[in-house]
Amino acid sequence: MSFREKIHWIAFVSIMGTFGWYFWTLPAAADAGPQGLWASAGLLLVPVLGITAVTTIGTIIFALRNPKEANAQEDERDRSFQIRGTHLAYYPMVVGSWLCIGLIFGGVSQPMLLRIILGMVVAAELIRIGSQIYFYRRGY
Fold first, then answer.
1. Contact 44, 98 (CB under 8 A)
2. pLDDT tens-digit series, residues 61-118
3. Angle at Cα 132 formed by Cα 130 and Cα 138, nearest 5°?
4. Is 75 helix (H, G, I), strand (E, B) or coil?
5. Alpha-carbon gap, residue 64 to 26, rounded angstroms
6. Which are the contacts of 101, defined by CB distance < 8 A and separation ≥ 6?
7. Whole-model pTM above 0.70?
């Protein structure tokens, strides 16, 4: 497994874990006005710090174990995987954006809209990273 693939695995697992926790622990009662919005936004600190810590520590560990591979230049294959992953993540992001625009006019509460936007961004990022992992595994 290449260094970049390992980093993608770390990012994928940390995003799944931290945002899984975020959406699981966020109470449905947090929809009660501005307090719910601030409660939803305040809980975001845990996923942000968690993802940052896990990816930083994981990257350091893998870089120390194999510094030659960590310092290797990105090749055409890596760039291709990145472009294709970003391309696949673009579509759910666009659909989610239009959905959010429609929900704004539908009168959805701000805390719920924040959760939907976050869910859309997290899903798009998981699609991007997951597809890159798939491409590394399949050797495209």
1. no
2. 999 998 888 788 888 988 999 999 999 999 999 999 999 999 999 888 877 888 889 9
3. 105
4. coil
5. 37
6. none
7. yes
